[in-house]
Amino acid sequence: MKVKVNEQHNFEVEIAEKALKVNGLELQMDARDLSPTQKHVIYQNKSYNIELVERNEEGKAVVIKVNGTLYQVGIEDQYDELLKKLGMDSSSANKVLEIKAPMPGLVLNVIVEEGQEVNKGDSLLVLEAMKMENIIKSPTGGIVKKILIRKGDKVEKNEILLQFA
């Protein structure tokens, strides 16, 4: 399986019954379970306390704490590789291509520009509906391909407001 740490370090990991191989090299270590979420490991005469902080089954990602330092760890197995080759991976399945108005209203402000890269949760625009200001946030990361509305436009429910590349 492939393991990515902090979105920058990639490792090829094999787990056998009593052995752990990283990038083809078998690691010699002593590991003891302290609890269901904590381990104590001795590796190359150094002691490591490892704690599982957060687990995301869907995204196959975990956050672990090693001697007080947090690490984001992503895991990809052979099935993920196969789905990716077939174009059926979860990242493409969850890709949102357009933002529609959740209700009729008046566009008070467009925060983004065409060609701008946005992350999940970034504010895209402000829509006034029933005398309330609603900030429309991005449900996904991506690049704004086309903005179909302007400040002052009246929009109907389900009208396409912007599109992602």
Automatic annotation (TrEMBL):
Keywords associated with the record: Biotin
Record has Metal-binding as a keyword: no
Residue stretches making up the Lipoyl-binding domain: 96-165
NAD found in the keyword field: no
Protein known as: Biotin-requiring enzyme
Species of origin: Pedobacter steynii
